[in-house]
Write a structure and sequence with these properties.
- The protein has 172 residues and is an all-alpha fold.
- Helix content is 65%, strand content 0%.
- α1 crosses α2.
C-alpha cells in the first residue's frame, strides 16, 4: 500500500462523492433532455396522425361525391382508421369498405330491393333523379348581393316594340 501512503482517506471519500454528484447531475440533465425530446416527438406524431385522419376523411368525402352519396353520412359511417393507404397516399380498401356499408345499409347508400309495386319504384326513381342536382361552380353565385339575371323573352319584347310603332303611326 505504498502507493496510497500520501492519500488522506477522508479527502478521497469527499472527492469521490463530489465526482458522483457531478455524474448524477450530468445524468439528470441528459434524462431531462431525453424526456423533452420524447415529448416533442410524441406531439409531432399526434399532429401527424391528426393530419392523416383529416386527409382520409377528405378522401372519403370525395369518394362519396363520386358515388352520388351524401358525403357527411359516408364520412361518419366509414371508420377512417380502417382505411389503408398505399405508397402514393391513395386509399387501397375504400371500395371494399363502401361495399360493406352498402350491403349493411342499402336504404341509405344503395338502391332498395322492393318488388311489391313497380309503378311506385318508377315514381321514386323519377323523384330521385329530380332531386339529384349536379352542382357546378358558378363564380359569385354564393354572394348575397348577386341577383340572377333573367333572360328576356325576345318574342314579347318584339311584340311590345311593334305596338309602340303602331301607336306612333296612328297618332300621325
Amino acid at each position: 500500500m505504498k502507493k496510497y501512503k500520501d492519500v488522506d482517506p477522508e479527502e478521497y471519500r469527499r472527492l469521490k462523492e463530489q465526482a458522483g454528484k457531478k455524474k448524477d447531475k450530468k445524468d439528470d440533465e441528459e434524462d431531462e433532455e431525453l424526456n423533452t425530446l420524447k415529448n416533442e416527438l410524441s406531439e409531432k406524431e399526434k399532429r401527424l396522425a391528426r393530419a392523416e385522419r383529416v386527409e382520409k376523411r377528405a378522401m372519403v368525402k370525395e369518394f362519396a361525391i363520386d358515388k352520388d352519396v351524401n358525403p357527411r353520412l359516408l364520412a361518419r359511417l366509414i371508420n377512417v382508421d380502417d382505411i389503408e393507404l398505399d405508397e402514393d397516399g391513395e386509399p387501397e380498401n375504400l371500395d371494399e369498405l363502401f361495399e360493406e356499408l352498402e350491403e349493411e345499409f342499402p336504404e341509405y347508400l344503395g338502391e332498395q330491393d322492393d318488388d311489391d309495386e313497380d309503378e311506385e319504384d318508377e315514381d321514386e326513381e323519377q323523384v330521385k333523379t329530380k332531386k339529384k342536382k349536379k352542382s357546378t361552380y358558378k363564380p359569385g353565385s354564393r354572394q348575397k348581393n348577386n341577383k340572377k339575371t333573367k333572360k328576356e323573352d325576345r318574342k314579347a319584347k318584339g311584340a311590345e316594340r311593334a305596338k309602340q310603332r303602331h301607336k306612333k303611326e296612328e297618332d300621325k
